[in-house]
Design goal:
The protein is α/β, with parallel strands linked by helices and 246 residues long. The chain has eight helices and eight strands, in the order αααααβββαββαββαβ. α2 packs across α3. The termini are far apart.
Amino acid sequence: MMGRLYTDRDRYGEAPASLLVEAVHNAVRDLVRKRWSESGESWASFAFGSSDRLVAKADMEAIERRILDTGYRFAWSSMLSVRDRPDIYAVVEGAIDDPDFSFEHPDAIVAPVDAEGREQRGVGDNVVRCPTDTGGIARYIRTSERVIDFMKNGVPEDTIAIIDDSGGTLTAPILEGFKGVICAGGTVRSHLGILTREYGIPCLMNARISGIREGERVLIETSAAARTAESYQSGMEMRARVWKIA
């Protein structure tokens, strides 16, 4: 692939999620190609040896700075990120502790209350198919303060954790206490998806939900087929539903 630009479409079979993803990936590839060429080493020697030294933290910070200098501000994936580095993130509507806060994804698929009293408020990628759907109480886990509180006092019973960070680091100390998880980011192969699979916790990743507030009863369609790598590559939709119980 050294003769032309190697894009996300080459690797994943589809266009990137956003122009930002493509821009960052291309900048990193250009940097690696440059450092590899300058090293005079074989690819194996560079990749498994000197790359740790030749591709430095300062290089990654320079890429971030070039993006920020265009006027772009990163979309937030965790309230921790916004709080710690507010200067590089887009404005977030809703305070961290606002009890009326809810995710409002523009592509959330919603539907009126059905005969069983379920109001569809979105969809997501099911990590593991379960024998039944999973119901509980929606609780947003967006700050370290809330994690610490749940560590001290226990995770409330029947908690369906709604999380915006697919990394899993924020919620790892209390993950076992969740009855289920709805995550607004990532894929079934993200860190949080892997952790919930290992712990046997029902989980939807890449969830597009709207109008679910703290303390409301929800039901996630964990009986739906699990999302596969092939479906991501082909673009085939495999959506599990999220309902609010009226």
